[in-house]
Amino acid sequence: MYVCMCFGVTDRQVNDRIADGARTMREIAQSCGGAGTDCGRCVKSITAMLPRDESRRRRRELCGEADTCATACESTGPTAEPVALPTPTVVAAASLPDNVVPLRRHSAA
């Protein structure tokens, strides 16, 4: 069955690439002639075909060993750096638009 009509890629081709070791949508696109890079309608179908438990299982295995835990979590975790957010400020009721009513806090009785 065709999963990517733009590039004529079948589920058999995708499964063959997965059997060869492809584990991400990017790897599938590179090895299947660009599948998922044109209109994008096939991305969900192809992603659903990818194995999900392998990275979690590997992370659990490595986290069982204290020396490799940090390395495993760093290599399989998010790649984005934390971003400092500005401190919230209190807005005076006088500066609110006319259609906004400030909330009043009730004192504990």
UniProtKB/TrEMBL annotation:
Signal peptide: none
GO molecular function: 2 iron, 2 sulfur cluster binding; metal ion binding
Domain BFD-like [2Fe-2S]-binding: 2-50
Keywords from the named record: 2Fe-2S, Electron transport, Iron, Iron-sulfur, Metal-binding, Transport
Entry-linked Pfam families: Fer2_BFD
PANTHER family: BACTERIOFERRITIN-ASSOCIATED FERREDOXIN
Family to which this protein belongs: Belongs to the Bfd family.
Protein name per the record: Bacterioferritin-associated ferredoxin
Organism whose genome encodes this protein: Embleya scabrispora
